[in-house]
Each structure stands twice: as structure tokens, then as C-alpha cells.
């Protein structure tokens, strides 16, 4: 207000909304700095003063840009850490050494609080004193408020506020602040990434690509433990679920270790699929399982469903088409000492369902007795294609089920760009199964993949009329008595 030539009256309202008192402008400025946003009873009436102006000072500008790197770094594509150095002016109090700690506690909301910056520095003018740096955003006019003055009076500290030249370096700025200063104004700043062990995985947009190597190096500098930064350069391949990537900064070692839900995994990130954003979903499905249950993992990857299920004493059949994923699945089963509980396969998903899954269900389901607690779960986590595999369940088994309660539960994942993704996923699943799932399924929103693109999981128990192919009543009769319909005629003929 002061800098742009405004005058103001601060009005305190009574319960009827009328002005109770007026306050002069100098007091207004102090009260605004101290109470703005804290006292709902106070409001400001602002009027333009056409005759009063005050030029902006260098100190004012420095305070406003306290946490901004030097403007000359704009457009930098090759990281130069020295270019980020700058000096800003901040308020400071001269305090006796024995009083410093007490003052810091009493003015903890006013002193400078910034990771990497010292709040207390040496006093060049007195050996027995220190300079306590204050936050210029809390002391905008280098003048303390009444409450701060009371604290200083109680501690016998001078009210005089000094101006201290604070040097800021590259180390003092945060990742997002650096990137916002470097990239063109008004464009998106990439500061988020997926972390896979020592690897940071980015999905940069086109306008960020000229700065990609700088972005990668800054991420390494500002995130301890990150030693490699990669950017995805192609879409995920629908067959093996991996993608091309470019190493932007750091070492080119893409074999890494991760830990998810207290389970350790090792993998080659350049050859297998791993998404840390699915940690919650992996845990949700495993929580549905009980010891003794059977899990068929159709697109198992390196084992984020299979291995925790095996550790939970479930019987696991895990499959993946990608030979690299299969290899790392076996490795991680041994790493977690569950290799005797997991039967691993390297097959196409359809072959896995029509082979090992059909064989196991055909063997185990007829043996189950009414009330037996064993459950069968089939996980199909290939969102781009999994729903198209559901037609496999049509008449997968022959005969009659021993109990409808024992029918397998399917957890199938899919992407949707529909305005009603839940309805879309259900209708597509119904089309593959050839039956309605109304009242027989639950749909769960896993995550937002991109604007207008959702990943969902639809869970349902396979309907008995879908899973089982029941014999025709005529098949039980002797061959001489069976009726059939000729392809060439609609008339029924008696087989001789």
C-alpha cells in the first residue's frame, strides 16, 4: 500500500457492523503486517491518493524475491551453479550470546526459517554478540510490531533492527524454485517424479525437453540417494509393458532395488514394468486374501501381487509373457524365500488361463465341500488389454460346480477415458463375458493416469452360467436315441 501510494483507514466494527474507531496510517501499516488474516473483525477501506508516491527501493525488491534465484539464470540449459549466487537484504537483531536461545524460542515465528540458511551469524562489530536474522516477509518495513517489541523489552534486547546482507547460493534454493527460475515464464515446471530405488523417472513435456539434462542434474542435487534420472521417450509397449527411456543425468545403472509394503524387490527398470504409484493397490488386493487361498496372477510382472500373497501363506500361480519379468520374478521369489510357494510361468495370458488355471480349477473346485473357506482369486493387471481376455472364462470348465460360493473372484484392471468410467468398465467387461454384472460386481478407482484417463479395477465372482459348460440333456442318452440338427436341414433326425 505504501509503495503504490495508497492511504487507508483501519476500521474496527462493532456487532452491528458500524465503524467504532479510526486509526492513523502509520499504525495501520504495522497492524496490517501483524494481524492480516488473523482478526476476522478487521477490514480495510482503501482509497487512492493521487498526490503521494514513494519509489520502490532495492531492499524492497530484494525482500520480495528472497527465495528467487538470480534473474540471469532464465533460459539456462547447461547447469551453472555459480550463476545462482545473489545477495539480499534481511532484518537482523543484535543479541547478547547468552540471550540468543531464549530469543529464538520467543520469536520463533519471526526469525528466518529456511533450510540451509543460518538464523544466527557472527556480529562483525561485537565479539560478545550475535546477529539473529529475521524473516523479511514477517518484518516487511524493517520495523518490529508491538508484540515483538514487548519480547525484546522483557529480554533487555535493543529494538533497533539492522540490515544484513545475506548471500544466497545454489544450495539455498529448492528444486521447484530453481526450475521455475530457469524455464520460460508461464510454462509448467516439472518437479515431481517417480522414484524407483536410486532412479528418478520423469515424463517430460515437449517444451521441457531443451532443459532435460539440467532438470535431471538438479533432481540429483536436491534429492539424496538419487543417482540416475531417466525420461520416458515412448509409450508403454502393450506386449511387455516396458518403454524406451533416456538417461538425463547421473550414472547409467538401471538395475535397482525397491521396497514396497515391507517386501524387497530387485529389477532392471529398462526391461520390466514397475510403477510405485500402484503400491496401495497391491496392498489392497493382498489384504483380501486369507492364508490357504489360491491366487492366479495372469500378468504378474516381477511379483508385487504374487510375492506378498505367498508370504501370506497363499498358493500362488504367477505368469508373465516378458522373459525378463519372468526371470526377475523367479529372482525375487528366491530373494523373499517364497520360491517354494510360487509356481511361475512364462506364457501368453490366454494360454495361462486355458492351461494351468483351467487345470487347477478343474482339479480343486470339485473337491471343495460346502462351507469350506478356501477362495480363488484371479488378478489381471494389464489395464490396456486385460478386459479383452475375459472372454476366456466363457465355458472354461465343464460339468457342475460343487458350490456357487466357491467360484473364482476376478480382479480385472482397465483404462477409461469415458465421462462415466465405472459404467464404461462394467459394460466392456459384460461384453467380453456375455452376461450382465448388475448387482454382481464392484468397481474401484485405482488412480488418475492422465487428464480424462482413469485406471480402474472391476471385481466380480465369475457367474456359474459363464464359467461352466453344462452337458446337453441328450448327451446322456444312448447314441441310437440322440437327436441332432443337420447343418443342411432344420429337421431333427434320429441317429442310426
CATH superfamily of the largest domain: Vaccinia Virus protein VP39
The assigned CATH architecture of the largest domain is 3-Layer(aba) Sandwich
Strand content: 25-35%
Number of domains: 3
Across the major sheet, the strand order is 15-14-13-16-18-20-19
* Total beta strand runs: 23
Mean pLDDT: 82
How would you describe this protein?
The longest helix has 16 residues, at 349-364. The chain has helices at 25-35, 58-64, 100-106, 146-154, 175-182, 212-222, 279-288, 306-311, 323-335, 349-364, 421-433, 464-467; strands at 6-12, 42-48, 86-96, 120-122, 129-133, 162-168, 194-196, 199-202, 228-232, 245-250, 255-260, 263-268, 294-297, 315-319, 342-345, 376-380, 397-398, 409-416, 441-450, 453-461, 468-469, 483-485, 492-494. The protein is elongated, with a radius of gyration of 34 Å. The protein folds into 3 domains: 86-168, Alpha-Beta Plaits (2-Layer Sandwich); 175-253, Met-10+ protein-like domains (GMP Synthetase, Chain A, domain 3, 2-Layer Sandwich); 275-366 and 373-467, Vaccinia Virus protein VP39 (Rossmann fold, 3-Layer(aba) Sandwich). The strands form 7 sheets. Strands 15-14-13-16-18-20-19 form a 7-stranded mixed beta sheet, with helices on both faces. It has a 4-stranded antiparallel beta sheet with strand order 4-5-3-6. The protein has a 4-stranded mixed beta sheet with strand order 7-8-9-10. The protein is of the alpha/beta class and 496 residues long. Residues 1-64 and 480-496 have low confidence and may be disordered. The protein is built from 12 helices and 23 strands.
